[in-house]
What does this fold into?
Amino acid sequence: MAQLRERYAAQAAHVRRATARHAGIETKDQLIDAGDGEFGVRTYLPPTDRGRLVTYLHGGGWTVGDVDTHDPVCRAIASVLGAVVVSVDYRRAPEHPHPGPLRDGIAASEWAERAFPGRHHVIAGDSAGGALAMGIAMHHRDHGGIGFAAQLLVYPPADPQLRSESARKYGSGYLSQVEDLHWYYDQYVPDPAHRTDPEIDLLSADHRGLPPAVIGTAEFDPLHDEGVELAVRLAADGVEVHHVPAPGLVHGYLLMADIVPAAAVATRNVLAAVEHMLASMPMAQ
It folds into this structure.
């Protein structure tokens, strides 16, 4: 597992070359006491603060990735949205299987809400982090917690059975391999009985009362159809949804924005959709 995480970090570092474009952003790393141990968060303070807050959950199949691999993504969010960003270094599977990462995300969102009150608070994530973000939103809805202004879910896994046509068509040869996706689920949810939990099987969850959502999908992604279907089901349950497709791109495009022009465009598009959603809301109290 250590070698896998090192390889993922090395790949992310390979495309991390333009973070200087987001100048003037201050960062601070600190630890949060989760009751059963500690985990880290990295806070980004934007050069122009527009009264927004984003709690961000990184991708990596719940097993790899961290605040460093997704540092450019969080810098872009802070800069473009004028938001304080709290990036969550949640404890990962297999050492910490479900619901461990979800609990860390919930705790981090509550910490962020206390540390930066009175803001439009967005819960966000990419890939596995997108699934965590929606699980966090469901938790707060069900327990009278944070009323998030919006969700940002970029190519989220929504069906642990991986039954979609896109999983068949793009499950090999398009960077994200469907056999790897099955392996990630095995690490994160080793007990198959829990794969029907609503925070795992997002397509079958009750979406009523969830915050407005921006869902980004990539055309050549095994998870493409799941993201499209999730947008349809959210809308059917009365949730405002903005689906932002990324033609010609593969899973993980947020991490490619510094070297792939089309990925940079797609990243700008999903953030523009969040900006449009937040701009239509009254000032936070």
About this structure: The first strand starts at residue 26 and ends at 33. The chain has a mean pLDDT of 95.
